[in-house]
Structures
1.
Amino acid sequence: MNPSLKLGLVLIASFEIAFMQSIVANITIAALGLLYLLSKRVSLKKLLWLLLVPIIPVIGTWLSFYAHGTGDVFHSAWLLSTRIYAYIYLGGILTLTVSVEDLLGSLEQNCHIPTKFVYGTLGAFNFVPRVNQTVKQMKIAALMRGEVLHVWSPEIFFKSILVSLRWSDNLAQAMQSHGFSEYTKRSHYQTYSIPKWNWALAVILLICLQILAFGHFI
Amino acid sequence: MMNRTSSTKSTSLSYSLRDVAFIALTGIFCGAIFFGTTVSYNFLSAGLAAIGLGPFANDILLGLWMIAGPLAAMLTRKVGASTLGELLGSFVEMVLGGQWGAATLISGLIQGVGNGLGFAMAGYKHFDKLGLLLSTITGTIITFGWSMINEGYAKYNLGFLILLFVVRLISIGFFSGVLVYWINKLVEKSGILNRD
């Protein structure tokens, strides 16, 4: 399915889940997401990881509604803890099957997001490994002077801003010197289209979602 | 260091390629600092979960999650920078952090709009204490409203709800308010943004 359409569907579904009051609906969405991911041959290890990672927040949510809820506390506890899994497997549909390049490329061509946002973000993404390394370096450099940089220290953010400023300057200049222009029309080697069956499937899925949302399940 | 006067000369609505890359990079840095420093999050979360106070783990750290928005607003002084910063930050988080998926984009948007509203109320003229104070208040109210629906906070009893609200206000007030103010002071003192 086209990445932009997939993003749109997942966003609509995520938004509606927030209002759904049905445990059955949450479990159905999570199960459908899981089935989709299995059919796309996402590794079992990753799927199992998705099941385990949120276990602490899930238990935390369940217990806090049980202890501090009003009304039907069991319903609230199960509703809100299964909702987390609905979000997670729904989110996985997007993040585990679509690459950043495809998503941004499709957003540019199908949703006409301005190129500076698409390529500016894409350019910044390529710095992720260096960002992680730089944060480590800053902390170690501070330790050598006997300073510990905490998450609440303004210095660590200030240094990050210095680096971001330099890199964004360099990145923009490098892109412009390679012919990037914010205003001219681009041609594309990789094109993204939305075939008719995509639209049809999207409509069917949305209808199913409304049945889940308004179907008065428990 | 290149001066950045071009971004102050142009209208505050238009973003250049460099601004976008800058905001995205700052967002990535904030994410890296968050993930690289708070190993204790899971311990905190587990400890609080065991005594039925699970949601406090989120509320205590929410201000830190939201820091990219007000930071972008203070540094670029542009209309909508807070929303853009938070949205780009959550996009980065969705792709890298992973497990919360597209729901991150929605909460990112809500957090960004919540913070941005404060700067908007000040007419985009107060990128100072007043702007940050207003953005703390609007940010807390709007994200809390979303939590009432999305995380089911509406189903908690009133005492618990008030406590959650106060904790969130303090967290956002400190991280997205006071800390951003300190950072901005360092930036202004260094003169790297070449603003008048």
2.
Amino acid sequence: MSTTSSSLSSSQGRRFQRRYLLLIPLILMTIFYLIPLYVMLVTGFKSFEEVSLQTMWNLPSGIHFDNYIEAFEKLKPHLWNSLIMVIPAAIISSIIGSINGFVLARWRFPGSKLVLPLLLFGMFIPYQSVIIPLAVFMKNIGLAGSIPGLVLVHVIYGIPITTLTFYGYYMTVPKELVEAAKIDGAGLLGTYWNIFIPVSAPAFVVVLIWQFTSAWNDFLFAVILTGNKSWPVTVALQNMAGSQIIAGNVQMAGSLLAALPTLLVYIFLGRYFLRGLMAGSLKG
Amino acid sequence: MFARKEKLYGFLLVLPSIIAVGIFVYGFIAWSVRVSLSDWVGLTADYTFAGLRNYIELFSDPRFHVDIRNTVIFTVVFVLGALIIGLFLAILLDQRLPGEGFFRGLFLFPMAISFIVTGVVWRWLMNPATSADRLSGYNLLFDSLGLDFLINQWHLTPTYGMAAIAMTAIWQMSGYTMALYLGGLRAVPEELREAARVDGASEFQMYRRIILPLLWPVTLSAVIILGHISLKVFDLIIAVAGKQLPLDVPSIYMWQTTFDGLFYGRGASIGILLLISVAFLIIPYLYYSLRSEGEE
């Protein structure tokens, strides 16, 4: 009996040690993931004189902000465009998604069974299949090339994903709560306001983050529907990177500036970001 | 459930969204189909019916053949790569190693970044110069680590350059498959693992015979989601390579031919073909997932 238990514990001990060997591939993968970030940071902090293709892996001689200043000056109007486009888009999308999700989750109307798959499919369509009519339409209503136009587009094409996320979340609200509210004489809107809104914070955070990130990172709508004055930062960065005149170090600094808002959201609210992903309801 | 008047309110609340999606998604798809069946070239709309001519021309267009080949290469490398790396990372993290939360967060951060930023940085890293005095990026790193045999032309490699761009997409998205798989692994009951260990199965056998088969549904969702991303890949390629013919894909062809070349009819038909290819992937998936949801 004692021999079995000791052999068991020694095999457990071996397993315990072997487990730590697993850290080696994990660290190698960590390096693979961090290299682009390292290059972005290191190159961005070099002074203009230090930059050459042959020394790109070296650390900077000190922290220089030249590149960031120049990149920021070039991208400032576009970072601003992105910001004033993304914030209303995320907020409006979330409100619409919440209302739709509530109505669909709590009330079956004729044809409501059809609404969900049609929304779901709308979430996955390649936007290339609607972009020509969209461009014509935006021109006809006078919103082509403008930031409000881009907000509208993100809000409308965000309806499927925001609605379905809230729908999934609201389906988990216990029926008893709704019944109790009804006995208290609450109507549809009263139930929404008093029962659903107070418990909605997690879903709002997930949807806000999702819409913020996807609108900020969008390139296709932006490049087709905006002009160079209203370019969001993704289009401006792409143009900066495509130009031969602007040095790589400024491009790297610009990349970091363009990535920073969504990275910060991810770092501080990553838990919710992950929760949205794990729910499996969000597309990539 | 609610009074009639209340129901009317509810309906009125969702109606604008239903109309908006109806027009902007389904109406515009129909409109695109109409454009794709027309002769429209130039700035003024021309809906003269041309039948399937745009589609037929595309299939005999050498550029479109390159696009299809590139999409296939990209899809195979990207989807397989993201699945394998994601599964590998998930199994590693499933061992409850120290710092698990840190690693999980680290592997997912690229998902928060735009494809444009990823592309711009990777273009810098994948400097295609191979002559010793001009090495930079990864090639320079390989050279200084004595890994010369790894030096290559990345996305400028003839025929298979697309695989290098797929690698940048793997960097961006494998954290996502890792998260999906880790969720699946954590849902495997501990008793099942214990039972396998008691039966004398090695850890490897346990994963191979018991756990991996349980992860099929996760793999299926991941393939659908990654597959639809790769069919319409656009900004990543623009950011790494610009508009180069050897690295062309349908979405870039569509963009150029429509908005630079003003061949609206042809552009629309590429858009519709993309939609059809995504539909082949998505509709069976939607059908099964909705049906199984209905059964619950």
